[in-house]
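Q: What does the assembly look like in three dimensions?
Context provided by user:
Components: two
Sequences:
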Amino acid sequence: MTDSEHLLRVRGVAKRYGSVEALRSVDLAVVPGEVHALVGANGAGKSTLVRILSGVIRPDAGEVEVAGKAVRFRSPAHARAAGLAPVFQDPAFAPDLTVAENLRLTTTDAGAFRRQLAALGLDRVELREAAGMLPLPLLRMLDLARVLAHDPALLLLDEITAALPADYAERVFEAIRRARDEGRSVLFISHRLLEVQEICDRVTVLRDGRNVDTLNTADGSEQRIVAAMLGERAALAVTEPRKVAPRTHREPGEPALQVRGLSDGHRVRDVSFTLARGEVLGITGLEGQGQDELFAILAGDRKAGGGEIVVNGEPLVARHPHEAIAHGLTLVPSDRWQALLPQRSVRENLAVPLYNSPGRWGWIHADRELHLVADAIARLSIDTRAQAQAKRLSGGNQQKVAIGRWLVGGFTTLLCFDPTRGIDVGTKHQIYDLFRELAAAGKSVLMFTSELREVPLACDRVLVLYGGRIVAELPAADADEATLLSSAHGLADTLTESA
Amino acid sequence: MSALASAVRPLGPTAARLGRRHAWTAAVVVFFVLLLTWNASQTRNFGAFEIQTMLASTLALAYVAMAQAVVVIGGGIDLSVGSLLVLANCLSARFMEGTSFGGSVLVALVVLVVIAALGALTGLVISVSRIPDIIVTLATSFVWGGAALFVLRTPGGGAAPEFQALVLGSGNAWWPALLCLLAPLLLVWVPLRRSRAGIAIYALGSSKDAAFLSGVDPLRTKVIAYAVSGLLCGLAGIATTAFTGGGSSQSTIAINATLTSVAAIVLGGVALSGGVGGLIGPVFAVWSLYLIPNIMLGLGVDPSYGEVVKGVVVVLVVLIGGQLRLRRSRSP
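A: Here is the predicted structure of the complete assembly.
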């Protein structure tokens, strides 16, 4: 294949942030009309590469060619003019401006935007609404429509399906296929290998800032991708799709958390369940089925309108997260930045709960803190190379710190909201293993997940939320994707079947 | 399907949306009208003369509040607005002294250009050096204050009387001051607000990253915001010259103007975090802050307490407004 046939050609691109080498040397080639996947573990350099290709940052070394011509992007606008258009996980919409004003910023033609929206099945969006008032998944769809309206030669989609409801994700895939049929190319970044297999033609695997493998999805198996992502040493642990982790089938323990008839008069309707000690209970559902509100109520961050929460046999009416934490009910929110102190060190982020209970005269026990923090770092194998500031950690390590905080602070029930969102396969399994360990030690975990495939890997039991109600309850062993998906869409009332 | 349906459900009629966007400004206008009614009920024969006095004596502060609003909307804060006012005041008073009407107008135009350029320079320094706005403008506030001392060491100077009357009106003629206030709004701000450059100012204040990814040039936008702010500070200085018939380089004037401008934008619905608000709210806030001591006086309260009440009002309004916003965001 000669160079002129390539739409995009990247050679030896490198980028360093201080002492951290984000990209060592990456080669990549995308041909016209190709859907090319970019996969890799967290910190492999995928996002850095996309930021270079979209003109957000400039590479330290290497060349980028578009349609045979060398380019050095000065700004995102410059990259867009060259036909490279990105959609990031965080939509590029100024929240206080209306959608229409945001379109003017990017000089997007309103008619073309409307046509793209219609093609995505979203023709009733009010463009005069402030962008910040719209739900995040919808905003990401608007970002995609905006990018498509600019008639790009290459779409850069960075984790566009992360935490996207299944119906939206399907529309994104349709849009990708349409773009390919129109002769556009797509660089698709995802942690979901199933998606990659389904819609991509070729895959390039990044590891530690280098491209380690490029293969056709037709002949490349999921195992080969995973092996390339993780390198030889770690590959053995995850190549086989694991069955439910071995667990001792004991009688269910004492109830750790009982919820009876909980409602907030709006999004949460008559939710009841019991979580036993030593149990990992999953909750799943489509976007906006009351899961955010349910977790906020349990964590003491939102008032319940009715119902009862009983923690370790004691009724709890938490007016503030502090009271829930004091009762051993701790939340790891979906948005890591809600949990972390971005400018502070890993140690301080982990030790924060300890500052609630200082010793005499407000002294902090430095020894105890050091000991507990070191223990949490070891148990979660947190990568502490960039420990001076939490914001410099990779996404997976940030999530580990958010969870590790409660290993330090202590809890009886851990509430985890989408704990594996946007993190790599290896880290996901570490988190599942941690949950199993915690359960074996008599703790309990309530986790919401939007990834149905992880339910049998981490949970004992799963509840499905639909329209604020629990519509299904299944043992994790029976929770195959098809059953969960149909309950999540409100199609089957498996609650009665399983009862 | 229902996730989709709930996400794209029409978000209420146009009126409700406009109400939501402009609720704060509307509240400040209502607040001002209430204060004005109260003040009017205290004063015998309240009329055009009192209105003229209010408009003329608050004109400079209204300009400075608008200047602060533009910068804060763009995600910055400008501690040098008061010093720029004083510099413009000293420059115009010194060079307008003894001139004809035409000469005063010419001096005014030159001063406006100079002060706007100083504003643009401030924006440039902030963008290029990447030093936070608050530090750079703190430094420049000393520089402009010192420069004002060079221009006019002791209070003095003057302006053509016809020029003073043109800016402020006289006797019962309240509309010249109002026209002077509206001129930069209609001639500069409204066209800017509707242009891509103006939207870029809001975008930069709302989310730096989103603005950058949308192709906003941060340097250009910062320079434009500070240049417009400088222009308004220049107008404020000239209005001061017209009102006092001279110039003064006292630093207390600068400090007072800067602090009032921050109080006015907060009261007027401009979020200190940027991206939210407009220029109308701060103007009504300045008028309200002017009326409060007057009303206290009318009630027979020691004028010193007027300042205390002003401070308490600012805190209360922001507190109540913040609570209302929070409640709205929690129960959609």
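Follow-up: Residues 1-11 of chain B have pLDDT under 50 and may be disordered.
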